[in-house]
Amino acid sequence: MALVTRLEKLTRDVATVLLPLNLRQWLRKQQRIHKLQSVPVGSVDFGGLRRLTPISSIFGQDRDLLTIERFYIEEFLEKHSDDVKGRCLEMGDPAYINKFGGDRVAQADVLNYVEGNPQATIVADLTDAPHIPDNTFDCIIITQTLQMIFEVDKAIETLYRILKPGGVVLCTSHGMTRVARREGVDDWGEYWHFTTQSKRHLFHRHFPKDLVEVSTVGNVFTCICNLHGLGASEIDPTELATHDPNYEMLVLVRAQKPLDA
Q1: Methyltransferase type domain location, by residue (predicted)?
Q2: How many domains are there within the chain?
């Protein structure tokens, strides 16, 4: 067995020598980083996370805390609060228009997919909404909604169409998180989880590339905590503020319609 192990190591070493110098240097750097970050096998203490069911099965809403996802969503909207102005549209209710727009907002509209929402001023399916006029809104806030629309490309096309020239859409969607199921209840369900690559391609089909900003939030620890439904206040602020592009909890988009559109 020891001989086989030595032969395998020798084979790897020979292969490494045959690689280009810059690639060999990169591999050695990655090996050093891995050794510094690695935890010995058998020494991981899972503590309260060693369980087969989540701490909260409803995204932490039963813990009476601001969820990790909502913390990141509100941080994103606060960053772009100057865009929330004029005539604005939000899905379901106008909570974020009111919170981040303030007196910059001239009119707040609410879109609902079906009849029955007393706050809705527009009832429409974003994939087919010819009754919403072109060039209507200065800002559209659409949080955690695109993943619920199967024909997502058509929805983004509508968002572009109903924005005024110079208008902005602020969009957040699930990346690495639990599934929000409503299968069998109605035709509303979660069809997609996105990555920066997929969101960028989708928005670039309709918005100019230089007017689309795609970013992500999260790291391996906050993703684990979010999967368990922990609240944002249960995590250290420095942990929340650390974002690793390999762990895309949420995918965030700010896209602007050209002034000359």
Answers
A1: 119-171
A2: 2
| Same domain for 64 and 32 | no
> Which run of H or of E encompasses 91?
strand 86-91
Q: What is the pTM of this model?
A: 0.83
CATH number at residue 102: 3.40.50.150
Q: Whole domain around residue 163: which residue ranges? A: 45-257
Tokens of 207: 């918005």
Q: What is the Cα–Cα distance from 151 to 159, expressed in whole angstroms?
A: 13
**pLDDT (0 to 100) of residue 3:** 47
Q: Could you tell me if 30 and 114 lie in one domain? A: no
The pLDDT tens digits of the residues spanning 174-205 come to 999 988 876 555 566 789 999 999 999 999 99
- In this predicted model, what pLDDT tens digit does every residue of 8-32 receive, in sequence order? 454 455 455 566 777 667 667 666 6
Q: What SS3 class is residue 250?
A: strand
